[in-house]
Amino acid sequence: MGAGGRMNEPTSNKDVLKRVPTTKTPFEISDLKKAIPPHCFKRSLATSSYYLFRDIAICFTFYYIASNYIPLLPKPISYIAWPIYWFCQGSSFMGIWSIGHDLGHHAFSEYQWLDDALGFVLHSSFLTPYFSFKYSHRSHHAHTNSMEYDEVWIPKRKADTLYSEVLNNPLGNMFMTVVRLLLSFPMYFTFNIHGRKYDGFASHFYPQSPIFNDSERKLIWLSDVGMVVAFYALYKVAMATSATWLFCIYGAPLLVMNGHFIFFTFLHHSHPSLAHYDSKEWDWIRGALSTVDRDYGIFNTVFHDVTNAHVVHHLISTIPHYHTVEATKAIKPILGDYYKYDDTPILKAFWRETKECIFVEPDEGAENSGVYWFRR
Predict the structure, then answer these.
(1) Are the CB atoms for 322 and 43 separated by under 8 Å?
(2) What angle do CA 270, 123, 129 make, to 5 degrees?
(3) Where does residue 304 fall: left (phi above 0), alpha (psi -120 to 50 degrees), or beta otherwise?
(4) How far apart are CA 98 and CA 91, in angstroms?
(5) Average pLDDT over residues 352-357
(6) Which residues contact 70 (CB under 8 A, 6 or more apart)?
(7) Three-state DSSP class for residue 90
(8) pLDDT, mean of residues 56-72
């Protein structure tokens, strides 16, 4: 488990698939905040910096070993060593990227300017437009599981026959898995794939995109500048070494990081027991609770508990990652059945959700309820 140790008791398959209540909650966000120990809200620059520099040190260690020793290995062994490095370094990238995500939530320090400066550098280094993502992600937190206004992982409807019929089979599921893991990260930022439908061209790189409001557009330009600088730096590295070397050291791990991001964000917001709501029924707290905590083993620690303490993150996004497990334990008694934890082995869960969470529709006889459930 993550930094807080084992947080949840094992659950049966029947419990895992039990629907989370959709009635209005008997508690408010203020009740949850009161239950969380006060120190969990403290953003310590020293502690946050420790995790950042620890992750950078791990990343550099992987780089040093790969660049200095893998080329010395005989080819049959190097063909095994490189993929191992790609996976380990891609996981390291994801850990640093997750800290950048916390910086966007102002969960790193008490200094907004410092959080934004560090987040801009970190996310640009991984070809992520920092301010663009910060703003769209803030909207995602404000409208989680709203059919009309959520920003990402918008579920399909049965009427979309490409998904509900053509691809709704084992071969289609496998195709969608490959496409998601390899392409969804850049396609989301570039073309808003998996995102909310807008009038006009929606892209995280386009300052006039309808994703953003007028007060945000100047910093979208800055995000684009960060991307241009990052691509130019990569070009210079490729010229100084080779495109093959750059791919092996940076490109392939970046693809692994992209796959990690899509893998766990898909699992955050896809589960047969969690509802989506339209504007007739949606409210913020039920939307925020329509996500799931899962056990990724050692990767809970690598990814800074964004995997196994995601529910509390949606409720109070400024809690630093090193306090989210403790905060989750504190609010679970209040949440009761509104809290969803799934300890299904993670690869099994991913394949189950890929097969079962194809589109959403209301229950039969409740077409006007405003509540939608995943179907296949």
Answers:
(1) no
(2) 80
(3) left
(4) 10
(5) 96
(6) 78, 81, 82, 85
(7) helix
(8) 97
DSSP 8-state code for residue 18: S
End-to-end CA distance of the chain: 32
Q: Return d(Cα 184, Cα 192) in angstroms, integer.
A: 9
Instruction: Return the percent helix, strand and coil in the chain, to nearest 5.
Output: 60, 5, 35
Which residues contact residue 216 at a Cβ distance below 8 angstroms, ignoring those fewer than 6 apart?
Answer: 131, 135
DSSP assignment of 70-81 equals GGGS-HHHHHHH
Tens of pLDDT along 71-119?
999 989 999 999 999 999 999 999 999 999 999 999 999 999 999 999 9
∠ CA 128-134-135, nearest 5°, is: 125
Across the strands, what pairs with 294? 342
Beta bridge pairs of residue 293 = 341
With 0.85 as the threshold, say if the pTM is over it: yes
Q: Which helix (H) or strand (E) holds 199?
A: none
Q: Given this model, what pLDDT does residue 3 score? A: 42
- Compute φ and ψ for 374, nearest 5 degrees: -65, 145
How many other C-beta atoms are found inside a 10 Å radius of the C-beta of residue 109?
Answer: 20
Question: Which of 356, 157, 176, 178 has the alpha carbon at shortest distance from 271?
Answer: 356
- Give the position of tokens 């437009």: 129
- Beta-carbon contacts of 82 under 8 Å, excluding residues fewer than 6 positions away, are 66, 70, 248, 252
Biggest alpha carbon distance in the chain? 67
Map residue 34 onto helix, strand or coil. helix
CB 263 within 8 A of CB 357: no
Q: Which two tokens stand for residue 264?
A: 């766990």
CA–CA separation, 197 vs 219, rounded Å? 22
CA-nearest of 223, 220, 235 to 123 is 223
- The residues near 207 (Cβ < 8 Å, ≥ 6 apart) are 217, 218, 220, 221, 224
The 3-state DSSP class for residue 195 equals strand
